[in-house]
Specification:
By secondary structure, the chain is an alpha+beta fold. It is built from nine helices and 19 strands. A hairpin with a 6-residue loop joins strand 15 and strand 16. It is globular and about 65 Å long. The structure holds flavin-adenine dinucleotide.
């Protein structure tokens, strides 16, 4: 085992969406760049965590909570900046539409955020939706909230761009090395991996589905969910589903039950049922999808997009890491607030924020006041977590 004596300013454990956003933000800051070490057990971008599958939705009329709107606006700016720095396309505007009953969770949430933050949007009846977007046929009584700026990010390219730029700016990235343990020691941290031991002034933990292994206090709070995705090729009316014509869509197909569909970028439309998957151990995930899982999504496409003949092209399994309220954790570790930051920004909707969250985390480790109120992302907001800490401390 090698011990690396020279301490780093910041060590980042996990280089998926949030970790790559963090190393990028740390190294793009003006002035002296901190000495940054990033470590990942795999070789990001990879297909075993939460950030694969070629496309991610980015939207602004944020149905989950209006507090996300200013953060996603900052993320939009930073994605554009990243795109320029990387010199390759990372985002395509398709527009977005949120569909469901007028008083349903999705439509209410999107309208509340859009109205509160003056997001450019239109509310269309079911018939107007079909007139505007011939591929989509909502049921009578459904409405659609259309937003102009929504679109698609290409997650593997985004992660590769952030890691590449961070590395060019001097970050040391170690791939294929697993963080086994860490401890706060003196006024810094010591991180032990499968290859050695590193000392740092600050530690950022962004382990995605493996967070509870790295922050055991979160074991009772975070639940990992198996999330299958499917790509279907439209064999008729294919132009109605092309990325040029069809927006990204979120559907509340029954009360509190939702699915998403992203338009065809040449490999078919991508669709999945949101949050109805099994709880899993991230090291023992069944990566095969069943006929039943495929049929469920195919039935939803046939119901709401009946123009096309749908043919399955591919399925993949991805992982959601959910908090009980489905909001993120972005916080200083309650026991080591001066040196450890914990980031679990998933619950099935975190990717779009990765650039902005990287910037927030960079502010936290540098003891700068973050530009957003992080109160709703506190690690200790869940009662079970507080109880565990109390028990541990007794
Ligand atoms: C199917 C699917 C669809 C989604 N759709 C959207 C969408 O449309 N829009 C959106 O905004 N969000 C979406 N999300 C959510 C978004 O993708 C996640 O919020 C985001 O990818 C989470 O990033 P992360 O950094 O937390 O996890 P990851 O990107 O998985 O990164 C965690 C990293 O930590 C590493 N790691 C773990 N343990 C260790 C260890 N001990 N040592 C070293 N490294 C370690 C892993 O190897 C991994 O690379 C979707 C997610 C899924 C699964």
């Amino acid at each position: 085992m090698t011990t690396h004596e020279r301490p780093y300013d910041v060590i980042v454990a996990g280089l998926g969406a949030m970790g790559s956003g963090t190393v990028y933000a740390l190294t793009r800051a003006q002035g002296r760049s901190p000495r940054v070490l990033g470590i990942d057990r795999f070789s990001p971008p990879h297909g075993l965590g939460s950030s694969h599958g070629r496309t991610r939705i980015i939207r602004e009329a944020y149905l989950e909570h209006p507090a996300y709107v200013p953060i996603v606006r900052r993320a939009f700016d930073l994605w554009r900046e990243l795109e320029q720095a990387a010199g390759r396309p990372l985002y395509t505007r398709t527009r977005g539409i949120t569909l469901g009953a007028e008083d349903g969770m999705l439509v209410r949430g999107a309208r509340t955020s859009a109205e509160r933050f003056e997001v450019r949007h239109r509310v269309l009846s079911a018939a107007e939706v079909t007139r505007n977007f011939p591929g989509l046929q909502p049921l009578d009584g459904m409405v659609g909230v259309v937003e102009e700026r929504a679109g698609v990010l290409f997650p593997e390219h985004c992660i590769a761009a952030m890691l590449g730029l961070a590395e060019r700016a001097g970050a040391e990235l170690r791939r294929g090395e697993t963080v086994l343990a860490w401890e706060a020691n003196g006024d810094g941290v010591v991180v032990r991996t499968t290859a050695g031991e590193y000392r740092g002034a600050r530690l950022v933990i962004a382990g995605g589905a493996w967070m509870p292994r790295l922050v055991p206090e979160l074991a009772g709070t975070l639940a990992v969910e198996r999330q299958p995705n499917h790509w279907f090729v439209p064999y008729s009316h294919s132009e109605d589903y092309s990325a040029a014509r069809c927006p990204v869509t979120l559907w509340e197909y029954a009360p509190y039950r939702t699915f998403y569909m992203l338009p065809d970028f040449g490999d078919g439309v991508k669709a999945g049922v949101h949050h109805e998957g099994q709880s899993v151990d991230p090291d023992h995930v069944n990566r095969q999808t069943s006929l039943e899982e495929v049929a469920r999504v195919a039935d939803l496409l046939r119901c709401f997009m009946p123009n096309a003949e749908w043919q399955l092209r591919e399925s993949q399994v991805c992982l959601y890491t959910n908090t009980p309220d489905l909001h993120f954790i972005i916080d200083r570790h309650p026991s080591y607030a001066d040196r450890v930051v914990v980031v679990s920004a998933c619950s099935g909707h975190g990717f779009k924020f990765a650039t902005a969250i990287g910037e927030i985390v960079a502010d936290l480790v540098a003891e700068r006041k973050p530009r957003f109120d992080l109160d709703m992302f506190r690690m200790t907001r869940f009662q079970t977590f507080g109880l565990e800490l109390m028990t541990d401390n007794q």
